[in-house]
């Protein structure tokens, strides 16, 4: 047990961590272009936050949360997703009192007790944005555009936005009635789960993976065909913005959201043509959430989240390689004890000048030092021995061309800066 990480967790070792850094840096870079700033919230929150914010009826809250009592008898949960904490922090820190909208992004580990499989860990990582304080469809368009630019710049091609509207409390009330009537007529063929959902959350029946249910509801009424005028106008405006930005999208009437506070826009971004298509991101509007969590009434919000593990798999499937940017510019080979000591002065000088440099730490032979220099892909190898030191010189070897010449130690940094 001692040398085995808990099931569903994965070490990210130096062999892979550069990929994570790359994804995170790219996400930060793109968020900055759109005026989104980072929100960092605790790894754990009061359990109640997720019961209210993610929803008592969801699988996440019912089955998958890492919940425990702390030593002070508080009900605590490791965050299963990023939005609830960000919205709680928005309210607690009174960010609504600042100029709106508030545009935030986050990069965070999340925790769900699920059966581990490829791209799905019990500790996983989410990137996401939340834009709070505007109900304008331009915010929806911006969120989609940001996500698309992120994926595009990672090298993913054939991206598609699947778009739907889940209406608002006004039109959903009417629609739910219509939907229940329809589902009542099908109750004999629907699975138990669907008959249960029918009462609490009829839209979720559309989500059922049971083939018998799927077949039974082919003529089910969809929310997007039953929108009120305000929701229709909101959706039409969003479509105009997407067209203006030439972002390809398709309407997918089957995208549903389980909870009441979700409103209007719901979207997914799908990477196609990489074997099985992969949903890389999901998002939408949650105009009721801020109020639900005790914030000011009528505060709108929209966001999306993506799973980093899943994204890395998708990039791999698409044949996109992330380059390891870590390379050492200089390796110093030393011959003799005096040179070994002197090399520390030289190392410091190089590093002070932001030239990455290293030397042997295992008393290797000269031959083995050269071999190591090769292995770490050093661009130049500097050789110092007693003779060189007498003349305050070093030998500089270009590892790519094998060209080698003598340099004055006092000129070394200057020459390297020119050649690197
Ligand atoms: Zn509506
Ligand atoms: Zn079903």
UniProtKB/TrEMBL annotation:
Binding site for L-histidine: 81-83, 112, 126, 130, 257, 261-262
Catalytic activity: tRNA(His) + L-histidine + ATP = L-histidyl-tRNA(His) + AMP + diphosphate + H(+)
Subunit structure: Homodimer.
A GO molecular function held by the record: transferase activity
Keyword Nucleotide-binding: yes
Gene3D superfamilies with a match to the protein in the record: Anticodon-binding domain, Bira Bifunctional Protein, Domain 2
InterPro entries tied to this protein: aa-tRNA-synth_II, aa-tRNA-synth_II/BPL/LPL, Anticodon-bd, Anticodon-bd_dom_sf, His-tRNA-ligase, HisRS-like_core, HisRS/HisZ, HisRS_anticodon
EC category: ligase
Cited HAMAP family: His_tRNA_synth
Compartment(s): Cytoplasm
Keywords: Aminoacyl-tRNA synthetase, ATP-binding, Cytoplasm, Ligase, Nucleotide-binding, Protein biosynthesis
GO terms for biological process, alphabetical: histidyl-tRNA aminoacylation
Alphabetical list of NCBIfam families matching this protein: hisS (TIGR00442)
Organism: Peptacetobacter hiranonis (strain DSM 13275 / JCM 10541 / KCTC 15199 / TO-931) (Clostridium hiranonis)
Record carries keyword ATP-binding: yes
Xref: PANTHER family: HISTIDINE--TRNA LIGASE, MITOCHONDRIAL-RELATED (PTHR43707:SF1), HISTIDYL-TRNA SYNTHETASE (PTHR43707)
PROSITE patterns associated with the record: AA_TRNA_LIGASE_II
One Gene Ontology term, aspect cellular component: cytoplasm
Protein name: Histidine--tRNA ligase
Family of this protein: Belongs to the class-II aminoacyl-tRNA synthetase family.
Entry's EC annotation: 6.1.1.21
Major subcellular location class: cytoplasm
Residue span, Aminoacyl-transfer RNA synthetases class-II family profile domain: 1-325
């Amino acid at each position: 047990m001692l040398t085995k990480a808990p099931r569903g967790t994965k070490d990210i070792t130096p062999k892979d961590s550069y990929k994570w850094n790359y994804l995170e840096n790219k996400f930060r870079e793109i968020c900055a272009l759109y005026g989104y700033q980072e929100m960092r919230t605790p790894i754990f929150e009061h359990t109640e936050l997720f019961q209210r914010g993610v929803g008592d009826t969801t699988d996440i809250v019912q089955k998958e949360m890492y919940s425990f009592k702390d030593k002070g008898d508080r009900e605590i949960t490791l965050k299963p997703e990023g939005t609830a904490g960000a919205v709680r922090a928005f309210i607690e820190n009174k960010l609504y009192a600042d100029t709106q909208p508030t545009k935030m992004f986050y990069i965070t580990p999340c925790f769900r007790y699920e059966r581990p499989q490829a791209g799905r860990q019990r500790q996983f990582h989410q990137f996401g944005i939340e834009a709070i304080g505007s109900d304008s469809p331009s915010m929806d368009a911006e969120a989609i555009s940001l996500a698309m630019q992120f994926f595009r710049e990672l090298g993913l091609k054939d991206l598609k936005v699947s778009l739907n509207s889940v209406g608002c409390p006004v039109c959903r009330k009417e629609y739910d009635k219509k939907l229940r009537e329809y589902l009542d007529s099908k109750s004999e063929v629907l699975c138990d789960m669907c008959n249960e959902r029918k009462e609490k959350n009829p839209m979720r029946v559309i989500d059922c993976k049971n083939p018998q249910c799927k077949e039974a509801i082919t003529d089910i009424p969809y929310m997007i065909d039953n929108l009120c005028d305000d929701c229709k106008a909101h959706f039409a405006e969003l479509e105009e913005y997407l067209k203006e930005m030439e972002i390809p999208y398709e309407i997918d009437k089957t995208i549903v959201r389980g909870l009441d506070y979700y409103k209007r826009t719901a979207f997914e971004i799908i990477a196609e043509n990489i074997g099985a298509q992969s949903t890389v991101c999901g998002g939408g509007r949650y105009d009721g959430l801020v109020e639900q969590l005790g914030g000011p009434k009528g505060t709108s919000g929209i966001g999306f989240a993506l799973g980093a593990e899943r994204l890395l798999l998708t990039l791999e499937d698409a044949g996109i390689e992330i380059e390891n940017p870590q390379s050492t510019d200089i390796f110093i080979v030393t011959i003799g004890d005096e040179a070994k000591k002197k090399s520390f002065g030289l190392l410091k000088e190089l590093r002070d000048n932001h030239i990455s440099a290293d030397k042997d730490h295992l008393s290797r032979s000269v031959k083995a030092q050269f071999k190591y220099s090769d292995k770490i892909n050093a661009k130049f190898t500097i050789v110092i021995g007693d003779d060189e030191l007498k003349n305050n010189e070093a030998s500089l070897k270009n590892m790519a061309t094998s060209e080698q010449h003598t340099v004055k130690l006092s000129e070394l940094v200057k020459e390297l800066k020119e050649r690197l």
